[in-house]
């Protein structure tokens, strides 16, 4: 990234916003883990924000299943923690 040397020179933090949308399975968890590690190793990036953190949408959408957490009825308080959360906790 061309802006990385300038950020490093000025001592600015470098964050990744809405980095990626990954499936909530082991493949998505592996992809998310590689992304977290590469961002830190290559650019000293210490914050990565996933799209979407909590998935509370209808199942007929094309991009269904890309949340780190599922909350299909958020008003009920029921949610499920998906595999990319495990990766985040261990990376």
Set down the secondary structure blueprint.
Blueprint: H1 4-10, E1 15-16, H2 26-43, E2 47-48, E3 54-55, E4 69-70, E5 80-81, H3 83-90
Parallel strand pairs: 1-2, 3-4
Antiparallel strand pairs: 4-5
Helix pairs in contact: 2-3
Characterization of the model:
- With 91 residues, the protein is of the alpha/beta class.
- 36% of the residues lie in helices and 11% in strands.
- The chain has three helices and five strands.
- It has helices at residues 4-10, 26-43, 83-90; strands at 15-16, 47-48, 54-55, 69-70, 80-81.
- A three-stranded mixed beta sheet has the order 3-4-5. A two-stranded parallel sheet has the order 1-2.
- α2 (26-43) links the parallel β1 and β2.
- α2 runs parallel beside α3 (83-90).
- The longest helix is centred in the middle third of the chain and has 18 residues, at 26-43.
- The protein is elongated.
- The two termini are 23 Å apart.
- 15% of the residues are buried.
- The model has no long low-confidence stretch (mean pLDDT 84).
Count of alpha/pi helices: 3
Low-confidence stretches: none
Approximate helicity band: 25-40%
Strand order of the largest sheet: 3-4-5
Strand content: 5-15%
Radius of gyration: 15 Å
What is the H-and-E element order? HEHEEEEH
Look at the helices and sheets and give the structural class.
alpha/beta
Number of beta-strand segments: 5
Briefly, what is this?
The chain has 91 residues and is α/β, with parallel strands linked by helices.
Descriptive labels:
alpha/beta; 91 residues; two-stranded parallel ribbon
